[in-house]
Amino acid sequence: MHHLITWIEEKLLQVNLVNTMDQADGFSRLGYTKEEQASQEQFRCIAKELGLQTHQDAAGNQWALWKVDDSASWIATGSHLDTVYNGGGYDGAAGVVASLAAVKLLKEASFQPKKNIAVIAFACEEAARFHVSTIGSKAICGILDKTKHASLEDNNGITLREAFANCGLDWELLHEARLEDHQLEQFVELHIEQASKLEKSGKELGIVRAIAQPTRLRITTVGKTNHTGTTPMEERQDALVAIAPIITFIEEATVDIIAQQQVPLVATVSTIQNSPNAISMIPGEVVLGVDIRSTRLQEKHELVKRITDYARSIEKDRPVTITIETLVDDEPTQLDSSIQAKLTHICEKIGLSSLPLDSGAGHDVMNLAKRWPCGLLFIPCRDGVSHHPSEHADSEDLLKGTRVLAEYLRETTGNNSLSLE
Amino acid sequence: MHHLITWIEEKLLQVNLVNTMDQADGFSRLGYTKEEQASQEQFRCIAKELGLQTHQDAAGNQWALWKVDDSASWIATGSHLDTVYNGGGYDGAAGVVASLAAVKLLKEASFQPKKNIAVIAFACEEAARFHVSTIGSKAICGILDKTKHASLEDNNGITLREAFANCGLDWELLHEARLEDHQLEQFVELHIEQASKLEKSGKELGIVRAIAQPTRLRITTVGKTNHTGTTPMEERQDALVAIAPIITFIEEATVDIIAQQQVPLVATVSTIQNSPNAISMIPGEVVLGVDIRSTRLQEKHELVKRITDYARSIEKDRPVTITIETLVDDEPTQLDSSIQAKLTHICEKIGLSSLPLDSGAGHDVMNLAKRWPCGLLFIPCRDGVSHHPSEHADSEDLLKGTRVLAEYLRETTGNNSLSLE
Fold first, then answer.
1. Between chains, do B278 and A271 touch, taking CB under 8 Å as contact?
2. B chain contacts of residue A216, beta-carbon cutoff 8 Å
3. Residue A233: which of B231, B254, B289 has the nearest Cβ?
4. Which chain B residues touch A291 with a CB distance below 8 Å?
5. Which residue, of A101, A135, B58, B359, has the fewest CB within 10 Å?
6. How far is residue B376's CA from residue B343's CA, in Å, rounded to a whole number?
7. Mean pLDDT taken over chain B
8. Mean pLDDT (whole number) for B97-114
C-alpha cells in the first residue's frame, strides 16, 4: 500500500495548493473564494485522472462521478475543501482525498460497481466567512432559505448572493442543487476527529454515533451603572458581580449532569459583553453568550432549566433583572445505526481497531443525515488540535480511513467478494 | 438674599451657555475645546461685572482677581467649567458660580480684604477627553510632565499639545502656570457631592476630610482556548470559569474589611476583556480591571493582598496562570484639619447644619492640597446623580454654600467683624 500513501500525500498537497503541509500561517481558504475555487479545480483534475466525470452543482459543490447505471441510485462519500482563517490542511481535505483514494483503490482492483459512486467536495462548510456553516450541503438538502441566506454578509460586507456571483454561480438557481430523495441512497463522510478520544484510547478509527448540536443562550443582566468612587458597596446594582456566579454554576451543573446521566455534555460561557466597561464605572449591563452541546436534547434542556432556576435565585438576592433567551436549540443528529454496524464490521474484517464515539463539532453529514442514511468515520488528529496551523493527521491514518471507505463502497455498491488488499 | 439666588441662577445659565438647565442631552463641554472657551469667556464677563481683574495662565486656567496688595498672598476659591460628555451643568460650574457669588456678597457688604482674593476656573478637570483628570490644577501645582503629557490623545487623535495650540496656548510655556509656594496661602473648593450622604443625613453642607484615591489592578488570567464542542469539561483550561469567582470574592472581601475596620472603601471589577470572545471558542485569556478607592492606603493594600492570595489559590486549583499588576496606587488626599474646623465653625455661626464626610471622586483641590492648606465644601445633589443630564443641585443649597465661602474669605482675608447677613 506504499504507493497509495504516497498518492494520498501528493493529492493532499495538491488540493491544499502547497508543496509542504508545514505552513506557519496555516491555510486560509474560505468558502466561495478564489482560494476555494483553486482547490476545487485541483479536485476536478484528480477526479479526471481517476477516470471520473466531474460536475459542479448550483451551490458550487463539486461532484466526482463514477456512473455505471443511469437508473441506479448514488452511494456517496466526501467532505469539504474550504478552511477557517489560518486553519489546518486536514479538516475537510483529509475526507475529500481519502474518498478519492478509496475510488483509486477500487479502480486498481478492477472493481465493477453495480450502483453509482460519487465523491462530493462540499462548498463552504466552515462558518468562518458567513457565520453560517455547511452552506453547500444545506443546499443539497434544500434547507437554505433563498431569501434569508442571500443577504448573509462576510466581514467585508460581501453578501452570500454576491459571493455566489463572484464564483460564477447564480443564487436564483440555488434550488437546482437540491437532491430528490431517490437520487441518493447513502452518504459516509471521513473527517479528522478534532478531539483526542481516539489518541487517548489507542484505537485506530472512530465510528461516530451522533453529532452534538448547539443550544445557545443569551443571558442579559441589567443593573445600574454609577461612579465606582462615589457609590457605596451597599447601594450598588452591579450587573457583573450579580451574574459572575452563574459562570461557575454552569460548569458545576454540567459536570453534575454528566455524572448523573453518563451522557456527553459540554457547556461554555464563551462570550461576555460588559457595559460601560470603563474603569471608573460600575457595570450596568452584562450579556453572556452560553454554548451548550450534547448528542441528547433532554440533557441540554435539563441544563437550561437549572441555569434559569439559578438566575431566578440571583434576582431574588440582587437588585438586577436577568433575561435568558434561547437563540439556538438544535436537535442532535443521530447517525444511521446499520451504517455504524457496517463500518465497525469492516474495521474488524480488515484488522483495524475502532471506537464508537460522538462528534462535538458539526459536519456536512449532519445535514444529509436528516434525509438519508449516513455515517461518519473519524481518523485521529495530533493532540486533538484543529482550526490551527499545527493541525496534523498521519498519512498512515488517512490510509486506514481510505481502506474502510473503499470496503464500504465495495460492499454497498457491489456484492462480489473481490479483495482490496 | 433673594436677589443673590436669582443672580446665582442667572450666572449658572450664563457659564453653561443655555437658557434653561433642563437639557435632555446634558452638557458636553470638554476641556480645551471651543465650548470650554466659550464658558470661560462668560466667566471673564461676570468677573469684570464684579470689578475683578481677569487673567488666563499658561495652562488655560481662568483667574478672577481681587487684588488689594501686591505683597500680600492669595486666598483662592474655585472649581472647573468643563464637563464630561453629556454631563450635568453643576459639576464644576456650581463651585465657580458660588465663588463669584461669594465675592459679590463681600463687595455688596463693602468688605475690604487685607489679602488678595482669587476665584479660579480650572481648565480640563474631567478625564473624559484626555483620560487624565485635573490638567489645569496639575499645571498650577507643577506636576504635569511636559514631555509625557504633551502626547496624550483624545478620541480623535488630537494631542494635548495640539489642543493647547487650538486654544491659543503654547505647551512650551506650560511651566509658567506653576505657582511658587508663597504665591498662594489657602484654597477652598465648593463642589456638588456626587453621592447621597448629605441627602440621606438631612444635613445642609458637607465638610470633606479626605479624598479617596484609586488603586487600580489589571488581573490577567491565561488558560487555553479550544473548540467548545469538542473539548470535554475535564480537559479545559477555561480562563473565564477560572477567574469568575474573584469577582464575587472582591465584593465580599471589601465588605468584610469595611465591617472590620469601619473605614470607607469601595472596590469594583469595572472592566473585562475576554478572548477570543467567540461563541464556539473556550475563553483562553481574560483581563479584569479593578478599581479600588479609599481615603486610607492601608485598607486598599489589605484588599490587594487578599485578592492576590485568592488568585494564588485559584492557580492551585485550575490549569491557568494569573498575573496581577498594580497600574495605579495613589495615596489618599488628607485635607487641612484647621480649614475643616473653620468651615464647620462657620456653618454653626450662620445656622447651617454640616456633616464631616469623605469624597469618593477626585477634584482639583486634591492637587493643590499637596502644596497648600486646602478645604472642600460639598453641597447636596439630587439622588447623588452626576455625570448625567439629570444632575441637579438646588439654588438654595448653592446659596448656602456661597454664604459659607463668603464668610470663609472674610475671616481669612480680613479681621473686621462686618456682618454679611
1. yes
2. 279
3. B254
4. 228-229, 279-280
5. B58
6. 9
7. 95
8. 97
Interchain proximity A268–B238, CB inside 8 Å: yes
Cis peptide before A276 (omega within 30 of 0): yes
Query: pLDDT digit string (tens) for A46-105?
Result: 999 999 999 999 999 999 999 999 888 899 999 999 999 899 999 999 999 999 999 999
Start-end of CATH 3.40.630.10 domains in chain A? 2-211+332-413
Measuring CA to CA, which residue among A191, A305, A216, A220 is closest to residue A266?
Answer: A216
pTM assigned to the model: 0.82
Contacts of A241 in chain B (CB under 8 A): 247-248, 251, 269
pLDDT band at A131 (very low <50, low <70, confident <90, very high): confident
**A213-329 classified as CATH 3.30.70.360:** yes
B198 contacts on A by Cβ (under 8 Å): none
Residue A304 C-alpha cell reads as 437550561
> Of the candidates A268, A274, A282, which has its C-beta nearest B228's C-beta?
A268
Query: Which residue is listed with cell 450622604?
Result: B197
pLDDT digit string, tens, across residues A238-265: 999 999 999 999 999 999 999 998 888 9
Residues A342/A411, Cβ–Cβ less than 8 Å:
yes
Tell me if A244 and B241 make a contact (CB, 8 A cut-off): no
Using the structure block, give the residue that is written with the C-alpha cell 444511521: A336
Q: Do B270 and A289 touch (CB under 8 A)?
A: no
Can you give the pLDDT at residue A415? Answer: 62
The residues, ordered by sequence, that sit 6+ positions from A180 with a Cβ below 8 Å of its Cβ are none
CB–CB of A37/A155 below 8 Å? Answer: no
Mean pLDDT of chain A: 95
Q: Among residues A75, A19, A164, which one has the least CA distance to residue A408?
A: A75
**B281/A289 CB distance under 8 A:** no
CA B55 to chain centre: 23
Of B272, B280, B360, the CB nearest to A240: B272
Contact A233 B266 (CB under 8 A): yes
Where in chain A is CATH 3.30.70.360? 213-329
CA distances from B284 to A230, A272, A384 (A): 34, 13, 17
Tell me the percentage of chain B whose pLDDT exceeds 90. Answer: 90
Contacts of A341 (CB under 8 A, 6+ apart): none
For residue B128, what pLDDT is reported?
87
From chain A, pick out residues whose CB is under 8 angstroms from the CB of B251: 233, 238, 241
- For B263-306, the pLDDT digits (tens) are 889 999 999 999 999 888 999 999 999 999 999 999 999 999 99
Rounded Cα distance, B146 and B142, in Å? 10
Chain B positions touching A240 (Cβ under 8 A) are 247, 269, 272
Of B130, B134, B152, the residue nearest B143 (C-alpha): B134
Strand ranges for B295-364 from DSSP E? 321-329, 333-334, 354-359
pLDDT grade, residue A421 (50/70/90)?
very low
Find the largest Cα–Cα distance for chain A.
84
For the domain A2-211+332-413, what is the CATH superfamily, name and number? Zn peptidases (3.40.630.10)
